[in-house]
Amino acid sequence: MTDHRPRFFGYGSLVNRTAHDFQLPRQARRQGWRRVWVHVAARPVAYLSVEPDPQGNILGLVADVPGNDWQALDEREHAYARHPVTVEAMATPVAAQVYAVPATDRLPPSQSNPLILSYIDVVVQGFLREFGEAGVQHFFATTHGWGAPILNDRAAPRYPRHRLLTGAEREMVDHGLAGVGARLIPAP
């Protein structure tokens, strides 16, 4: 039987429990999807989205929406559309909503609209804390679009919910980026 409480499935920065205060987060998996880097006109930099992939599966967290206040979460995730999905959490099907950029609104990341390292740091820190090193490897392997430029903004983070990383966490991020052939560009 599927649990139908108001929940969302986070697959990027929402995996990092220190970047939000959502209730009862649990590890979850979504079959048939993959992460992808996209840019949208409403944002100056690229962020993660998801898209169907019959061979794919992604890890993340499923959490209750506090007070069923979708408006606050919708504001955080502006430029995304919510979609109903079922995820597996502790071998139990769970109904949730997932935020994904509609295909018609997607633009490729570019030098003017790059990925930002402070966002990637938050995501990888979350995957490391939730799923260990294997989870970090899974994140890099199940995310597409690493050929986009990545702005090295660690000295002056642009991501509003950036987090401090330990030296070991920074090394994990840097190693993962090197493994996917990512290209960092200096901040202006």
Write structural notes for this entry.
The chain is of the alpha/beta class. The chain contains three helices and nine strands. The strands form two sheets. The protein has a six-stranded mixed β-sheet with strand order 4-5-1-3-2-7, covered by helices on one side. A hairpin with a 2-residue loop joins strand 4 and strand 5 (92-100). The longest helix is centred in the last third of the chain and has 25 residues, at 117-141.
Primary descriptors:
alpha/beta; 3-stranded parallel sheet; 188 residues; 6-stranded mixed sheet; single chain; 3 helices
Structural class estimated from helices and strands: alpha/beta
Mean pLDDT: 92
Query: Number of helix segments?
Result: 3
Rounded Rg: 16 Å
The rounded distance between the terminal residues' Cα atoms is 53 Å
Largest β-sheet summary: 6 strands, mixed
Total beta strand runs: 9
Q: Record the strand order, biggest sheet.
A: 4-5-1-3-2-7
Order of helices and strands: EEEHEEEHEEHE
Uncertain segments are none
Secondary-structure topology with pairs:
Layout: E1 7-10, E2 23-38, E3 47-64, H1 70-76, E4 81-89, E5 92-100, E6 115-116, H2 117-141, E7 143-144, E8 149-152, H3 167-179, E9 183-186
Parallel strand pairs: 1-5, 2-7, 6-8, 8-9
Antiparallel strand pairs: 1-3, 2-3, 4-5
Helix pairs in contact: 2-3
In short:
The chain has 188 residues and is an alpha/beta fold. It contains 3 helices and 9 strands.
